[in-house]
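pinned: reference chain
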Amino acid sequence: VSISDEVRYFLNSQPAALRKVYRHRDSIDLDDLCKMVEDHNERVNHDKRISFVLADVMKNCKVVARLNNDEEMLSKLTPLERMRAEAAERKYQRSIGADLKGASRLNFVAAAHRREGVSTVAEEVKGVSENISTALHFIMAFLGSFAFGYYFIKIFREYMDPTYVRIRATRDGLSSTLDAHIVSFHQ
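pinned: its structure tokens
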């Protein structure tokens, strides 16, 4: 976006090194501006007298450049190039401190593919690994609760009557509770 008078006023309230960077520039990256406003407000503990509202700072800004969202360019990319572009965008979003959840992390390549209903290889691998992980955790929780119940009775069999009903009820209750906690802990 272009640097308006409001943005200049905001930049003048920033440290000298930052003012020097943007002194002779005509535009500023929107992500950088958002991050600077957020950092400034955190630095002043959101004091209303000296904090800035992003909408007020960007009041007279104009869009100078946009990312190219050309469908032709997207169709020319190979799957490997798409994955590299997505990784580069995630790295950039992390570098500016953006939240990587939801639509804010999508770059122009990934957004176009989601519109078409095509998923990337990375998304497929992530989904499969999460499903396998959930299945293995369930199996381990079931086996662990069974083993716990079995050894619980075996240990206490020496000290108590093995046919006593409360022991079996306690064993079953504890193993069920353990099973439920292990499965819910994973989720």
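why pinned: Residues 1-66 form one domain. The chain has three domains: 1-66, 67-118, 122-186.
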